[in-house]
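Quarterly update from the structural biology core.
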Amino acid sequence: MQSALITAGVLVLIFVLYAQLVRRTTMFYPSKFPEGTWNTSQLPVQPEDVEFKSSDGVRLHGWFFHTGEPTVIFFHGNAGNITERGPICAGLAKRGVSVFVFDWRGYGKSDGSPSESGLFRDALAAYDYVRARTNGDIVPYGESLGGPYAAYVAAHRKVRCVIIENSFPSLAAIGNVLYRPLPLGLTAPFSLMTTRWLNQAGVPVLVMHGKRDQVIPFQLGMDLYNGLKVPKEFLTCETAGHCEIANVEPERVYETITRFVRAPAPR
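Predicted structure, tokenized:
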């Protein structure tokens, strides 16, 4: 009996350690400057080059596309940097919606190294920076891994609405799906709780997800949407992969987003 308990304990420890290793080594794939296309001359709207600091003093870099209200804050995913998001940000700005896109710590021209906890600081710092520069409404836009951070900001700051693109309900949910049959999500029951934070925020949410997403399965986007208890919309694309909807159906995406962020607040 005692040996069986010891064996079980060792197996549980190995499982937990493996889950933590996966969590630390597969979450972030930053591209540092000079990787990327930093020449913005081809974009239809030219951004302002800005710097600001996170609450722990890490210097962050971003682009501010000034055109109108509201202002969308773009929280990008776990790979690349802001240069890959420049076209969609400029596309929205061209239609009169201001957009602030920034690089997480360790990405692009931002200092530091990415970490799950550090990105919470960066997300709030981005909101506070934009709030200090505008009196208008703010809309968090979370792409992929940026989804839970956008939701977190919405739960802790005043926002008009939220946009979530190709994201997931929680770290537990995506861990259980991506590493099936291992239930790795059991080791992260309270992490990156996108759905819960969006429900806490209580504002309208636009969920977008491509049905051919090879990174975050479409079903996870459906689960996120179905778990929302707030006013919500769901935009899907039959042929788009991970975060490709704006490339596949740009006009439909831009029209949907601009209409959504300018819609009267529900009573």
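Residues 14 and 122 are 32 Å apart (CA to CA).
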